Amino acid sequence: MRPRTVLVTGGAGFIGSHLVDRLLSLGHRVVVVDDLSTGRLHNLNKNATFYHSGVTYPGLKEIFEREQPDIVNHHAAQISVTQSVKDPIKDAEVNIQGTLRLIELARQNGVEKVIFPSSGGTVYGEPQYIPCDEKHPINPISPYALSKRVAEEYLQLYYHIYRLDYVTLRYGNVYGPRQDPHGEAGVIAIFTKAMLEGQRPVIYGTGEQERDFIYVDDVIDANILAMEEGHGEYNVGTSQGTSVNRVFETLKGIIKYKWGPVYGPARLGEIFKICLDSSSLGKQVEWTPHISLEEGLTRTVEYFRKAAQTPSHNEGVR
Ligand SMILES: NC(=O)c1ccc[n+]([C@@H]2O[C@H](COP(=O)([O-])OP(=O)(O)OC[C@H]3O[C@@H](n4cnc5c(N)ncnc54)[C@H](O)[C@@H]3O)[C@@H](O)[C@H]2O)c1
């Protein structure tokens, strides 16, 4: 692959920081824009050029003009569904307006391709069939899901009007090292940290709800392949649903945790079962997930164990 300048927004966050590491290891020049609202400086690779800036700030224009990126990979976002319900305007400012500013600047500065992570776990709503493929009806049931969908449509529109190339990757539930264990979505990070600290994780509802858990390295593979090939929307998942109870039991085995879970009331509006048919991405860019749930959970536990012993990491696992 020929070396490029890649602008990664959200490059100090969970997924973005893994992406930055991989891009640098492949010889690309990487420019990161992150406002550190949920990202952590210690996640950020020191070989990246870093701008402590928001995607809604006017200064983004100068960053594009100075750095002249070939590829834009836009991982910065307001990522909380609950927060999006509490403050839909803030969600739209970052996820819709911020994305639009970015793709408009990409167009003005002759960027080759924009890569955008959307949310396969939310844009389809309650699935009519599983696994959901990309033809499944879109039915956002939260401001977050809607803002991701609107951003997807802006990318489609910019391709239609200006031929600005893009790939939208609709992720399942991504997990792995560096995920914030205090968010609402990172059930694996939350359970891992709680179990390692001898606390009792809470399972909301019966625990039989299923998600498509995908290890972060597999997601990064998809992002790298998408730089060269592919166009349009693709699911990024394992095509398999895993129940929260199974996650709990598997982690329990790896950690040798003694207790059972505590069950709490089901969360209102939560989708019951979803998984993503990702065969289209597989065919288009020869992508397939390599990391099994057991392997991914083992690596995640190792990371959180080490992080607990390293003071500089503790700021990232508040
Ligand atoms: N984690 C998942 O399971 C998942 C699933 C689907 C989609 N996604 C998408 O992947 C992307 C990354 O998610 P993550 O889980 O790594 O979350 P994260 O919170 O770890 O990363 C987001 C990063 O964006 C930065 N950021 C937030 N608002 C910003 C702004 N206005 N300007 C500049 N930087 C800003 C944060 O500081 C953080 O570093 C998001 O777009 C998210 O919607 C994640």
What would you say about this model in short?
The chain has helices spanning 14-25, 60-67, 81-86, 88-108, 143-162, 187-196, 216-228, 244-255, 279-285, 293-309, 311-314; strands spanning 5-9, 29-34, 49-52, 71-74, 113-119, 165-171, 173-175, 202-204, 210-211, 213-215, 232-236, 242-243, 262-264. With 318 residues, the chain is an alpha/beta fold. It has a single domain (5-317), classed as Rossmann fold (3-Layer(aba) Sandwich).
How far is the N terminus from the C terminus?
38 Å
CATH topology: Rossmann fold
User: In the CATH hierarchy, what is the class?
Assistant: Alpha Beta
Bound molecules: nicotinamide-adenine-dinucleotide
Mean pLDDT over all positions: 95
Give the oligomeric state. Answer: single chain
Largest sheet descriptor: 7 strands, parallel
User: Which CATH architecture is right?
Assistant: 3-Layer(aba) Sandwich
**Poorly predicted spans:** 314-318
Counted by DSSP, the helix tally is 11
Strand content: 15-25%
Neighbour order of strands in the largest sheet? 3-2-1-4-5-6-11
How many separate domains make up the residues? Answer: 1
Helix content: 40-55%
Class by SSE composition: alpha/beta
Rg, alpha carbons: 19 Å
The total strand number stands at 13
Tell me about this structure.
Helices cover 41% and strands 17% of the residues. Helix 6 crosses helix 10 and helix 8 packs across helix 10 (293-309). With 318 residues, the protein is of the alpha/beta class. It has a seven-stranded parallel β-sheet with strand order 3-2-1-4-5-6-11, sandwiched between helices. It has a two-stranded parallel ribbon with strand order 7-10. A two-stranded parallel sheet has the order 8-13. The protein contains eleven helices and 13 strands. It has a single domain (5-317), classed as Rossmann fold (3-Layer(aba) Sandwich). It is globular. Bound molecules: nicotinamide-adenine-dinucleotide.
